[in-house]
Amino acid sequence: FGLGVGYAPDYEGSNEYEAVPLLQARVNWRQGYFLSFLGNSLRANLIPSDFWRLGPVYNYRGSRSSVDNDAVDDLKNVSDAHELGVWGGIMWEGWFANLEYLMDTGNAHDGSYGTLKGGYNWVINPQWALTVGGFATYADDDYMSTYFGVDAADSARSGLSQYDADGGMKDVGLDLGVNWGFAPNWDLRGLLQIKQLVGDADDDSPVVDEGSETQFFTAVLVVFKF
Q1: Alpha helices, DSSP H only, in the chain?
Q2: What is the separation, in whole angstroms, between the first and last Cα of the chain?
Q3: Cystine design at 111: which of 66, 133, 142, 200 (Cβ 3.0–4.6 Å)?
Q4: Model pLDDT for residues 110-147, shown as the tens digit of each residue
C-alpha cells in the first residue's frame, strides 16, 4: 500500500501542471493472481501463471473543465470518463510486454484507445530496483475529436481555429521508475513519464498548440509491504 503526490498536466496537451494525490495498492495471491491499483487505474490478472497476464482494467479520466488556459477553458466541457477494457501480456525474467484496450462507458468521449507497453524491471540489489519502459497509444476518431478537435461552436467561443482530429497514433513515450527499500517492509518510489503527442494530437491541434505536445508526469510514493 502506498501514498504519494504526483505532478501532472491539467489537461492532455497542457503546459500548465498541478499537484495530484496518488494512491497505490496491490494484492498478490498464489499462482500469479493479483489486483493492482495505481493513480486512476485498476487492473487484475486472472490467469494462474507467473508468465501470462490477462484480465479486466478500469481507468478514470478526469474532466476537462476550469483549466488554466483561457482559450481551452472556453471550449465545451468534457465530463469525467469511466473507461473499461481488457489487458494482457507476459512477464519473463524481468522483461514485460502488455497490450490494453479501453472504451468509454459513458458519454465523455464515446471513444476507445489501445496502448502497447514494454520494458524491463532491473533488480540491482535487495534495496534498489530500476524500471525502464516504453509505450505507444492508438485512439479512435471519437477520442481524438473530443480532446484535440475544435468544432465550429468551440471555435466561435474560444477564438481557436476549427480542427478535425482523426483517429490514429496519439502518443509515444517512456516510463522510468526507481524503488529504494530504505527499511524493512518500507519502500520509497519515484516515477517519471515523458509522453510525446503525435499524429492529429500534435501541435497542429489548436488545443495542443495552446500548451505543449511534450507531456510529463512525475510522482513520489512511500510504500508499505506486508
Answers
A1: 70-73, 141-148, 152-158, 206-209
A2: 9
A3: 142
A4: 999 999 999 999 999 999 999 999 999 999 999 999 99
- Residue 144 in contact with residue 201, Cβ under 8 Å? yes
33 phi and psi angles, rounded to 5 deg: -65, 140
How many Cα atoms within 13 Å fall on the side-chain side of residue 11?
A: 26
% the chain with pLDDT above 90:
98
- What is the DSSP code string of 74-132? TSPPB--EEEEEEEEEEEETTEEEEEEEEEESSSSS--EEEEEEEEEEEE-SSSEEEEE
In the three-class reduction of DSSP (H, G, I as helix; E, B as strand; rest coil), residue 121 is classed as: strand
SS3 assignment, position 118: strand
Rounded CA-CA distance 48/113 in Å is 27
DSSP-assigned letter for residue 200: G
Contact between residue 93 and residue 176 where contact means Cβ atoms under 8 Å apart: no
Predicted pLDDT at 172: 98
Q: Cell triple for residue 26? A: 496491490
What the block records as the C-alpha cell of 27 is 494484492
- What are the residues whose beta carbons fall under 8 Å from the beta carbon of 30, sequence distance 6 or more? none
Give the model's confidence band at 30: pLDDT under 50 very low, under 70 low, under 90 confident, else very high.
Answer: confident
Q: Is 137 exposed, middle or buried (0-12, 13-18, 19+ CB in 10 A)?
A: buried
Amino acid letter, residue 181: G
30 DSSP 8-state letter? G
pLDDT of 38 = 96
Q: Retrieve residue 209's grid coordinates.
A: 498548440
CB of 214 within 8 A of CB of 195? yes
Q: What is the β-pairing status of strands 186-197 and 214-224?
A: antiparallel
